[in-house]
Amino acid sequence: MEGKVVEVQAAWREGAHVDDAQYRALYEASVSDPDAFWGEHGKRIDWMTPFTKVKNTSFEPGRVSIKWFEDGKTNVAYNCIDRHLETRGDQTAIIWEGDNPDESKHITYRELHAQVCRMANVLRNRGVSKGDRVTLYMPMIPEAAYAMLACARLGAIHAIVFGGFSPDSLASRIQGCTSKVVITADEGLRGGRKVPLKANVDAAIKRIGTDLVEHVIVVRRTGGSVEMEPGRDVYYDEAAEQVTDHCPAEPVEAEHPLFILYTSGSTGQPKGVVHTTGGYLVYAAMTHQYVFDYREGDVYWCTADVGWVTGHSYIVYGPLANGAITLMFEGIPTYPSTSRFWEVVDKHKVNIFYTAPTAIRSLMGGGEGPVKKTSRASLRVLGSVGEPINPEAWEWYYNVVGDKRCPIVDTWWQTETGGILISPLPGATALKPGSATRPFFGVKPEMVDAEGKVLQGPCEGNLCIADSWPGQMRTVYGDHERFEQTYFSTYPGKYFTGDGARRDADGYYWITGRVDDVINVSGHRMGTAEVESSLVAHPKVAEAAVVGYPHAVKGQGIYAYVTLNDGEEGDDALRKELVVWVRKDIGPIASPDLIQFAPGLPKTRSGKIMRRILRKIAEDDFGALGDTSTLAEPAVVEDLIENRQNRP
Ligand code: PRX
């Protein structure tokens, strides 16, 4: 399978933005003279004060600093809305498809403008101004996009918390960025089930105390009854009636923060990744256009949630900056049936479809029938993101969903990178199932070995990026030192991605997965340390170690080794209790799939847990444990193998 190449079809090249020769020339130009390249492409957005400086970046240890277009001023909402009004005011900006297939609507750029201005005025009336943080805890409804753009319009900084996170996780994120305002909905709706968003906000604020959050703005989605705290809580529709739909877009510096997004790392609690204005928008828009080969009038659908970076860059900011038609979907792939994705494609004549391998794998289980009963004739480009796509899922996506007509762009990137760094371009790149292929313009991947030696030619190693690109994160909110430490200290002078990769003889990259203690569950990032700290907070648990293991649908599952306090009995009832505990503490995405009660964990003589051994046992691959000579108590391993949970 690995040798397989799918050549660029003539139809993919026709009308495409770039072919292979153009890609190569542009790439060469972008890395040989970044100032000239980005100086030119920085003009794809409108600037209220044009920039004269382009790149000012340093990856030098102790002095990491990333600035792009620094003396320019612009506004993201202006670029995503206002500048399109003259030419495409009546064109659809957002197609919203509800959880219920009978509910959908089209929002034009002119309507989007009015809605965003209104939302901005509601925020402004509550004291929100440039630089203030606003937390969004929203379902996938148009108001989520209005709220993001309303913040951007005022120069306020949004921090979205995925609606699947628990009240405790929400509380720590609200506190982390000291948001005085929270925007939410009464309830979310997913797969016919209600999600108690407002009640979760209430629980989060109860935990925080009353001195931080001053306003909670509640969008009515289901109309379900919720408690409203007088003076603090207001229904959005009532507040919106009090304001006009005119609100100027505040010009902000290119390096003014646009948003904070919390993401899991290998240690400690989630970090607030900070993205700024100018470089981020240029990069999101440009990658959206080239990677998806977006053309005027195309209907583009990214199935992500706005709670993740993919929703930020490729549902809202990239597409709208390009004047695109972007589809926003409230529901899930399996409701009311497993044909839903393809029915939505037919209903709205979707041309470009972007989803995650985990969704493909879960639908593959249902066979071709639910796909083949739909037409999908409108599809032109398919995209994948979030985790490595295994060749079987790739083939099914290509053959069954795309009827062998559509290129698959396997896009590798991260919350930290702001936009896609490695991906095929539809008219230019011969595909290899399972490979993210080649770097985007301006991106300089570098492979290093464990000692940091730069590898040449075909190789396997750790993936770094040698120089800055405009969409890169700028800092960890409130902790620049953690930013330097996390990303620039392992291999000094380079950005370290945390991913392992292989580079083949054609210079194609094959991402093999995280090499740190981050696991990727259904394309969602989870730090093993977070799950461990949740488990050890349980009164019966003495110690816990969490690792990932291969999972047929989720990509990786969560495997927890738990040592109980003396006198406690490990049984199925306690397993269930611990799963409920973690779900409640962090959220359903952190639920352990397998829990093994272990009398002891394998440690070195200096007391360090040997995770390598735990990973092997979780993978059911204990024949290859490697060097165990440093184990303090070899008998512990025998017991772990004996009682392993992941048996075929
Ligand atoms: O391990 C890589 C994996 O997802 C990680 C980033 O996760 P997150 O910040 O949540 O962003 C996900 C959406 C951009 C990466 O370090 N990953 C993402 N895309 C791919 C991937 N692994 C392989 N192939 C991909 N296309």
Low-confidence stretches: none
Q: Describe the sheet with the most strands.
A: 8 strands, mixed
Based on Cα principal axes, name the global outline.
globular
Radius of gyration: 24 Å
Intertermini distance: 24 Å
**Residue fraction in strands:** 15-25%
Strand order of the largest sheet: 12-11-8-6-7-14-15-23
Q: Assign the structural class, choosing from mainly alpha, mainly beta, alpha/beta, alpha+beta, or little secondary structure.
A: alpha/beta
Fraction in helix:
25-40%
Please, what is the average pLDDT? 96
- Bound compounds: adenosine-5'-monophosphate-propyl ester
Quick one: how many beta strands? 30
Number of helices: 21
Quick description:
The protein is of the alpha/beta class and 648 residues long.
What attributes characterize this protein structure?
single chain; 648 residues; alpha/beta; 8-stranded mixed sheet; 7-stranded mixed sheet; 31% helix; binds adenosine-5'-monophosphate-propyl ester
Please characterize this protein's 3D structure.
By secondary structure, the chain is α/β, with parallel strands linked by helices. It is 31% helix and 23% strand. The chain contains 21 helices and 30 strands. An eight-stranded mixed beta sheet has the order 12-11-8-6-7-14-15-23, sandwiched between helices. Strands 5-4-17-16-18-19-20 form a seven-stranded mixed beta sheet, sandwiched between helices. Strands 21-22-24-25 form a four-stranded antiparallel beta sheet. Strand 29, helix 19 and strand 30 form a beta-alpha-beta unit. Helix 6 crosses helix 7 and helix 14 crosses helix 16. The longest helix is centred in the N-terminal third of the chain and has 17 residues. It is globular and about 75 Å long. The model has no long low-confidence stretch (mean pLDDT 96). The structure holds adenosine-5'-monophosphate-propyl ester. Adenosine-5'-monophosphate-propyl ester binds next to helix 12, strand 19, strand 20, strand 24 and strand 25. Pfam families: ACAS_N, AMP-binding, AMP-binding_C. Keywords: Acetylation, ATP-binding, Ligase, Magnesium, Metal-binding, Nucleotide-binding. This is Acetyl-coenzyme A synthetase.
